[in-house]
Amino acid sequence: MRVLQSLLGHASPETTMIYTHPLEEAQRCAVEKLEGILFPNVPSGSSYQGRSTSLTQ
């Protein structure tokens, strides 16, 4: 966010948030990375054949 704020010349991150929106794929990648950090022993959605959760859909 700080990089975007600087590039766009905004004084506050709140202003940057108004004009920028995360892409769905970027959100998915961020959630998958966070899942790996927080839950390293839990199978990911791609390797688990059971019911999927809202985090891996």
Description:
By secondary structure, the chain is mainly α. The chain has helices at residues 2-8, 13-19, 24-38. The chain has a domain at 2-37. The protein contains three helices and no strands.
Strand content: under 5%
Largest sheet: none
Number of strands: 0
Q: Nearest-angstrom radius of gyration?
A: 16 Å
Treating each run of at least 4 consecutive H or I residues as one helix, how many helices?
Answer: 3
The gist of it:
By secondary structure, the protein is mainly alpha-helical. It has helices at residues 2-8, 13-19, 24-38. The radius of gyration is 16 Å and the shape is elongated.
Layout of SSEs?
Elements: H1 2-8, H2 13-19, H3 24-38
Give me some keywords for this one.
3 helices; mainly alpha; 57 residues
